[in-house]
Amino acid sequence: MIHSLFLINSSGDIFLEKHWKSVVSRSVCDYFFEAQERATEAENVPPVIPTPHHYLLSVYRHKIFFVAVIQTEVPPLFVIEFLHRVVDTFQDYFGVCSEPVIKDNVVVVYEVLEEMLDNGFPLATESNILKELIKPPTILRTVVNTITGSTNVGDQLPTGQLSVVPWRRTGVKYTNNEAYFDVIEEIDAIIDKSGSTITAEIQGVIDACVKLTGMPDLTLSFMNPRLLDDVSFHPCVRFKRWESERILSFIPPDGNFRLLSYHVSAQNLVAIPVYVKHNISFRDSSSLGRFEITVGPKQTMGKAIEGVIVTSQMPKGVLNMSLTPSQGTHTFDPVTKMLSWDVGKINPQKLPSLKGTMSLQAGASKPDENPTINLQFKIQQLAISGLKVNRLDMYGEKYKPFKGIKYMTKAGKFQVRT
Amino acid sequence: MSAAPAYSEDKGGSAGPGEPEYGHDPASGGIFSSDYKRHDDLKEMLDTNKDSLKLEAMKRIVAMIARGKNASDLFPAVVKNVACKNIEVKKLVYVYLVRYAEEQQDLALLSISTFQRGLKDPNQLIRASALRVLSSIRVPIIVPIMMLAIKEAASDMSPYVRKTAAHAIPKLYSLDSDQKDQLIEVIEKLLADKTTLVAGSVVMAFEEVCPERIDLIHKNYRKLCNLLIDVEEWGQVVIISMLTRYARTQFLSPTQNESLLEENPEKAFYGSEEDEAKGPGPEEAAATALPSRKPYVMDPDHRLLLRNTKPLLQSRSAAVVMAVAQLYFHLAPKAEVGVIAKALVRLLRSHSEVQYVVLQNVATMSIKRRGMFEPYLKSFYIRSTDPTQIKVLKLEVLTNLANETNIPTVLREFQTYIRSMDKDFVAATIQAIGRCATNIGRVRDTCLNGLVQLLSNRDELVVAESVVVIKKLLQMQPAQHGEIIKHLAKLTDNIQVPMARASILWLIGEYCEHVPRIAPDVLRKMAKSFTAEEDIVKLQVINLAAKLYLTNSKQTKLLTQYVLSLAKYDQNYDIRDRARFTRQLIVPSEQGGALSRHAKKLFLAPKPAPVLESSFKDRDHFQLGSLSHLLNAKATGYQELPDWPEEAPDPSVRNVEVPEWTKCSNREKRKEKEKPFYSDSEGESGPTESADSNPESDSESDSKSSSESTSGESSSESDNEDEDEEKGRSSESEQSEEEGERKKTKKRKKVAEGHRAGSSSDEGSDSSSSSSESEVTSESEEEQVEATSWRRKTAPSSKSAAAAKEISLLDLEDFTPPSVQAVSPPMIVSTSLVTDLEGLTLTDSSLVPSLLSPVPGAGRQELLHRVAGEGLAVDYAFSRQPFPADPHMVSVHIHFSNSSENPIKGLRVGAPKLPAGISIQEFPEIESLAPGESTTAVMGINFCDSTQAANFQLCTETRQFYVSIQPPVGELMAPVFMSENEFKKEQGKLTGMNEITEKLTLPDTCRSDHIVVQKVTTTANLGRVPCGTSDEYRFAGRTLTSGSLVLLTLDARPAGAAQLTVNSEKMVIGTMLVKDVIQALTQ
């Protein structure tokens, strides 16, 4: 299975290596660097690179390449999934996963990696178990450790691995018992030039933050579970119960976790909450182009659209842009040709617009492509699919928890072709 | 890294011992230098008594290891601390040890005793971690110690330790492969482990050590399938992938019949019918077809695997979803593969690396099973923000999915892609258009025109790519495209990309007769610029010259010679060679080379059009989802996916020993013979869902109960059969089933007759256990039909029930009422087995159908007393057999006995006075009943789901008796089988007014499982629904006339309290049923 792991930053330095079997020389990464060079952009580095004796499987996150070295046949997704799990664990431990943070916590990182794999086969990947084994560093604990000389390593041996619910620690205690659920839906859409929808889908997740004492058993039911077309669960969810009753029944992990992700069937027409009017034109003769975008609300169910950000990758021929926004701020990076306009909240009475001219390279012919516009936005208090949580019940514990449910709609991969 | 030297300068100042922060920030330390003095510091720190200093030193050392710096010279200092009490120091020492033990083997041995001590620790977690480190030290000398430790740990009490042992197996194997045999023994032992914790790890070990020992899996196959859903994600991936291979060796291809049908659908369908002219329907015909064309019946174990993996498509782990997807792709019948598409499409939302892998697999699948992904076409549309490698793969999938109907949308999409800024992607799009054009004839011209338009694109790469694709397309139908060739010819002035120029030249040469005027001119231009061209273009110039010379030598003779002369002095020897060769071939010389006569044929031979096909074609011979598939090359250690076997290997190898509790009460009787029988019947005890095309079930009128006949039942049921004479029968069973059971029924009847004649021969159980249920049913059915000819003392109704239950009952007195014993065997299956098999009921499974076997209703009722009937006594009983003539009717067995001295003649039903809706199917007239004799007739009554009495007259030749039959409410329904999930679903629909709940207290006498079940089933003709919890009982049935569901739940609580719930649309029936059941239970 997984032989070794190398962490490589964007400038090509190997800043951490871990071996679970005998040592593989770091020179194996030369093949990776070669591929990296060929791929011009980091995200184009092939995730699987064969070398004469090894295979390099990598993921790229937070500007770090996590390169796993394997020697024999293994399902590539197995390794990729594991590497992502490593990144998630680091994020969970340190808040962010970046090169300086990993370097600062190298010992904890090493200990965590040691526990996650045994002889290259995953051993403990649930962050709850890991946190029992190796406590995540906090400022307070670091100070205390410095003074007292105590350690990050849990002095109790992990019992989580033996439990039937490996995702939950035993003996959890809170003074305020609370359970929050965020229903977050993202709209993925491609809108064509004329404003009609080419494809639109809703992908949703329910993220939970559960801080409950003891071993609570929760059930969550929906008003309209039929909306959910395709679902995937956290392992804690009892699948059979869902199959038969469309109820989510589970013993929650402690803390933050993703309970469910779902897809709303494509048959339901997706309401597109915003529209973009655009007028981008290059003229053959002149070296100036016109640029005009207006963003407006469409089907928002009476809710305000916030946090609107418009980005667009301009063609190479564009040298600079002089634009005036009616609200918000905009930037144009002449090197990467990236235009970004932070609109903020849309006021339906006065639609935000961005107008101006583009200066093109003199003499060059006009670019053949108009840029695509990527949109980000947020709508609070609304799940665009209409999904509604009916009720949340708790069994198994006596106290009364505080429950909260929040809805939000966001733009996922929302593109407007022009 | 550039910071390192800088730090090494200031290290002297900051690295004093006792500065703990230092270790927390290794980046700021000079510890990465190779300064040995520094290591001396560390050694000192390690030698102190202070844990904090040791910890400090270890942290720095680990930081060095993490950076890839050599810290091996510290080994002696570190290894001393292996027994340190501080747990973090200890852990870090372990880390160090595992890293360097290989290099310092002798010194590493010093630590071994610590671990050996750890192996004996009472705490399981310490035992496990000791084993883990011990096995991770790659020192060959300790192999025997490791072996011993693994063996011991494999039988440890704690599953966690056993899991660690499983992990240690591959470690030891990689250290010393000579241990293989011993390790296999350990693996075998661990494979038998029943905990989910161990399953994943041991299969991993199996895959690494002995993937070829497929025989080790047999006995554990079912268990693995059932545990699968509870194993952690990583284990699931490994197990699924192994089971895919296993299934390929053990089961028959589910598509073998389909492929036959596909080749020649009409013929295959009718053909089978012709074979069996007398067969009433295709199913029947198929059932009795010759063995060589045996219809495909899915092995129940095969079905089990498919069913148990399906829910895992909902896993959050992409690896698990992919593993299930490949399993379905490789193992499932065509109709079922579709379920994976949705889950795979979902993965496309994941990280780009996951997308990359998934798209590769989707690309392969979409070639084979295009229809599967067609509904998701739009999910593969490309966004400008996708990385190029993802774009190209999506394009591949879109191309594979394009067909006649969706091609317009696909092409419109492609059109937007062509304007992308990403030129590699544009090039790929053009190729994709080319492929669409070749695959779908209808759009070829459209595509071609589009591509020709692209020729005026400003980007040269785009133009060049278009030319190459156009060339391939034109080659397919050159005649109509003279115009395009002309257009291309004009392009030679502008296009600089060699590949494109070469393509144009080749086209002009090949189709010079379509452009007779232009071709020589192009040659002229090319001759002019010949020296400046790229090699590949030069070769094509020679080629063009030669072809023109052959077709149009008048105009081009000089030009050709000029070109050939130029080529003769070219720098590239390929070109010189080609020129020489061409000259010899086309220019007639004195020697008159034999070949030159054929030159025209050689150069202008018709050339086959190129095939534009996906690079993913034929990749599916690699197991999907594997590394080898992704790379399209065999990776080290790849296990070939075997082909389906021609003949299914013996399925009985998967049978496992029966646990004690299935033993039947009357087992003592036949102790000496029980062994073989035992294992045989247990063979069916897995969840043997009879495959969809079970011939038996289809051909039977009472298919409802018999088609569900599966093994859960047979494990109990077969116990009731008497000893089994033919031991090999289980292998025979399938065949004999197919031979149609008519023969068998006869045989069976003979047996029954044998019994009546007083013989107690037991040969009756030669039928396979799995089919016994259905046979019995069919038998009793025939009995009913032929009831008139059966005039014997015995009461066929009770007898058939008895036969169905327990043949030994036949030895008992004829009038034995359906006893408790008769009902008990199915109940033995109850909770524990049901719980075990619970996992199987996830889907549309059918389980424990024995529970459906007709349980005779409450004993006989009197219809006519012998005094009132002047010697004719008539009783009736509800047999609970489906009434053959009309499924809505309740079949009532009417038992006549003549206690008078004269024969009674002409017994029949007369002048029924029936309430609305109720109808009667009379029994055939009984001509004569001799004194002292009795007979039975069957009549059907449609009570129209009410408990109103059916009044009718019973006529003899001389008299008429008014009689009436009032059914208990429990007889108005027939059992249906459903899974727990279905039950719950249905129950959810029948709430509110349709739900009747009553509390009751169960008397002490009826608190055991089987008594409760028996009481309920006697009261009402319901089928038991398997249920996960031990103190809940569920039953389901449908009313006979309207087919409304009747669901009964009995929730037993401690101390006899219980709650009875009946859900039914028919509220009246529900209320009455509650009353009746409570009465039965509380009596």
Automatic annotation (TrEMBL), chain A:
Keywords carried by this UniProt record: Cytoplasmic vesicle, Golgi apparatus, Membrane, Protein transport, Transport
MHD domain ranges (all copies): 176-417
Gene Ontology CC entries for this record: clathrin adaptor complex; cytoplasmic vesicle membrane; Golgi apparatus
InterPro entries for this protein: Adaptor_comp_med_subunit (IPR050431), AP2_Mu_C_sf (IPR036168), AP_mu_sigma_su (IPR022775), Clathrin_mu (IPR001392), Clathrin_mu_CS (IPR018240), Longin-like_dom_sf (IPR011012), MHD (IPR028565)
GO BP terms in the entry: intracellular protein transport; vesicle-mediated transport
Topology of the protein relative to the lipid bilayer: Peripheral membrane protein
Compartments (UniProt record): Cytoplasmic vesicle membrane; Golgi apparatus
The keyword ATP-binding appears for this protein: no
Highest taxon, organism lineage: Eukaryota
Pfam family, one: Clat_adaptor_s
Family of the protein in this entry: Belongs to the adaptor complexes medium subunit family.
PANTHER family xrefs: AP COMPLEX SUBUNIT MU
Protein's recorded name: AP-3 complex subunit mu-2
Lineage: Eukaryota, Metazoa, Chordata, Craniata, Vertebrata
Gene it is expressed from: AP3M2
UniProtKB/TrEMBL annotation, chain B:
Primary location class: membrane
Composition-biased stretches (Low complexity): 279-289, 704-715, 757-775
Region of interest (Disordered), residue spans: 1-30, 269-295, 666-799
Pfam family, one: AP3B1_C
Entry keyword set: Cytoplasmic vesicle, Golgi apparatus, Membrane, Phosphoprotein, Protein transport, Transport
Topology within the bilayer: Peripheral membrane protein
Location(s) in or outside the cell: Cytoplasmic vesicle, Clathrin-coated vesicle membrane; Golgi apparatus
Listed GO biological process terms: intracellular protein transport; vesicle-mediated transport
Role summary: Subunit of non-clathrin- and clathrin-associated adaptor protein complex 3 (AP-3) that plays a role in protein sorting in the late-Golgi/trans-Golgi network (TGN) and/or endosomes. The AP complexes mediate both the recruitment of clathrin to membranes and the recognition of sorting signals within the cytosolic tails of transmembrane cargo molecules. AP-3 appears to be involved in the sorting of a subset of transmembrane proteins targeted to lysosomes and lysosome-related organelles.
Family: Belongs to the adaptor complexes large subunit family.
This protein's name: AP-3 complex subunit beta
Gene name of this polypeptide: AP3B2
